[in-house]
């Protein structure tokens, strides 16, 4: 690497804001509720929280350590720190995941833009559940309109990435995050007081253990990786921008707690409404887009709330896509010496093509399938259920076995500045528990480890 000082995040709040900006996004508000709905409620929530603590936190800490120690993009960090060149492949795998995630993420982000438009033009008013559901299907299965919004969204992301790390990423998150939190709490308050809303809370908080099976566990694990932006080098890239004096352990606790709180709050807003309006909780990706407009319609000042909400959701999605694109761009500029602009253009074109496939698979290409999955489902499943967990295994194994223990400890304590009382537990987890647990969940789903559960 060059001796030039690497760009870094400014203030300490900036670090948390940027990492939380990456983590908090459609994963919390769109994906978490529908995955929970598909997997039968409370039991999923319980397993999800277990996955966040036992798998998510150790993986995030490992990514931060690898990134800040390596001072490079994922591929570069593994190449520099690993004793064998093959480690670089983990970084490259991350770049591929990034492309695939972006491929469907920009489509859903485009949907949020359409919903801003609908909110502004009073499109939700006096529509019942059936009408809202029909409106969503008509829109998402359309060919041109969703692709138009997706393109606009991708251009926004690309523009911010061209502007650079400090200016672009940090500023946008600091204001948005508290606002988003506030509005979700307001939504939740309205939802739980709807007639019949308590059934939703029961669904959410009363675990029905008979619903747990290997698929539910895999889904919860995939959701934890997705929501925390783990297993593909996003947090390695951000780790490399974190200043040496920042406390990594504390950052991990703050980011994971905030991310989990927002996801649970989103579910508290959505499920009471699902039950109050007689919506099917297991309907998948459409769930949020049908449930939320129903709540807005029942709120005083719903017009303003709905605009604010979809604007914030769109910004939350933007701070996540920024982090995803940054992984690809950091890799292309540092490893292949492309200029920043060229790297952004090249990756955006790739994402645009994937995005078109994902968008069309909601409509005219809905019967084009690979392994029985549409493009949209394929990009989502391959990343959340295979590539990210696999990345998580490799990253924890790398931090636990390939890096020197002393180097990891020095990184966590910022060369002795902080007490790292958790070090032994962390080391034990990343050496023996986290990678093995992820592996068992993956094997189990393939049907190879059935006797284990
Ligand atoms: N975590 C983000 C969300 O919840 C999405 C995201 C951003 C992501 N960067 C990632 C997911 C890296 C996986 C890997 O919306």
Which keywords apply here?
Hydantoin permease, 453 residues, mainly alpha, 0% strand, single chain, globular
Overview of the structural elements:
This protein has a single domain (12-452), classed as Hydantoin permease (Orthogonal Bundle). The chain is 75% helix and 0% strand. The protein contains 18 helices and no strands. It has helices spanning 12-23, 26-38, 42-70, 74-81, 88-120, 129-140, 144-163, 165-192, 198-205, 214-227, 234-241, 248-276, 287-297, 302-335, 340-360, 375-402, 405-412, 423-445. The longest helix is centred in the C-terminal third of the chain and has 34 residues, at 302-335. It is globular. The protein binds tryptophan (TRP). The site of tryptophan (TRP) has 15 residues, from helix 1, helix 2, helix 10 and helix 14.
Quick structural summary:
The protein has helices at 12-23, 26-38, 42-70, 74-81, 88-120, 129-140, 144-163, 165-192, 198-205, 214-227, 234-241, 248-276, 287-297, 302-335, 340-360, 375-402, 405-412, 423-445.
Q: Which secondary structure elements does this structure contain, and how are they paired or packed?
A:
Blueprint: H1 12-23, H2 26-38, H3 42-70, H4 74-81, H5 88-120, H6 129-140, H7 144-163, H8 165-192, H9 198-205, H10 214-227, H11 234-241, H12 248-276, H13 287-297, H14 302-335, H15 340-360, H16 375-402, H17 405-412, H18 423-445
Helix pairs in contact: 1-8, 1-11, 1-12, 1-14, 2-10, 2-12, 3-4, 3-10, 3-11, 3-12, 3-16, 3-18, 4-5, 5-7, 5-14, 5-15, 5-16, 6-13, 7-14, 7-15, 8-12, 8-14, 9-12, 10-16, 10-18, 12-13, 13-14, 14-15, 15-16, 16-18
Tryptophan is lined by residues 22-23, 25-28, 101, 226-227, 229, 232, 234, 320, 323-324.
